[in-house]
């Protein structure tokens, strides 16, 4: 009996250790993304202002000390991190379902590779958002018309004057469609995990 208990503890302990090591990799990814989001938010101190045809982001944070472009990139990084955080949650539920079904472990390297591969589309978004952003001077009249003359001068502005432009449409659609798809997947997999 002692040998059986020892074997059970060793084999069971190894399986639990490998499982928790892989899952802790997902937790580490989530923690890093959330930490960066907090730093980006603190540097940006941003607000979003929308009209029927435009979206303007207004930054009042320390990023203004560096440059307007830096604030714009931080704003895009905030959006990118939000979407990547949802992506990692989807991967976590996929991983949990896989383990509960007994399909085996993925491996730390493969799991990290999956997280990195799912990050690549967000980099494409970052580049597209940079090219789609309109000149801040075009955004000032939109903000001033909503508040009062000179209000826009208190902020670093970045965003889109016309949401109907093709590249702007792609960027805005990405910000809506990708999270919707991830959330639908999370709900679907969550229901399967709950059923097990």
TrEMBL record:
Record's keyword annotation contains Transmembrane: yes
Pfam families: 7TM_GPCR_Srd
Residues annotated as transmembrane: 6-28, 73-97, 109-133, 167-188
GO cellular component term, pick one: membrane
Topology class, membrane: Multi-pass membrane protein
Keyword Transmembrane recorded: yes
Origin: domain of life: Eukaryota
InterPro entries to which the protein is assigned, alphabetical: 7TM_GPCR_serpentine_rcpt_Srd (IPR019421), Nematode_rcpt-like_delta (IPR050920)
Keywords for the protein's UniProt record, in alphabetical order: Membrane, Transmembrane, Transmembrane helix
Localization in the cell: Membrane
PANTHER family: SERPENTINE RECEPTOR, CLASS D (DELTA)-RELATED, SERPENTINE RECEPTOR, CLASS D DELTA
UniProt family annotation: Belongs to the nematode receptor-like protein srd family.
Name used for this protein in its record: G protein-coupled receptor
Species of provenance: Pristionchus fissidentatus
